[in-house]
Design brief:
The protein is built from four helices and two strands. The protein is mostly helical. The protein has one domain.
Amino acid sequence: MQFAKILPLTLQYLNLSCNLVLRSYIDIFLNHCNVPLKRLLLGHLDAKTVKALIEFCRIVVDC
């Protein structure tokens, strides 16, 4: 949650594909990320990540 909160609002691209620690908490990250990302690289997608990513996209589209 802290990582998501400190991201600058001007951030457009984020690569988390190689970060094994953050990949484990990607659902929490996406639920607290308020940055309008244009590109997000995640690497391996499991069911939990896909669900969190879909919810993140719904929130971004609704804004």
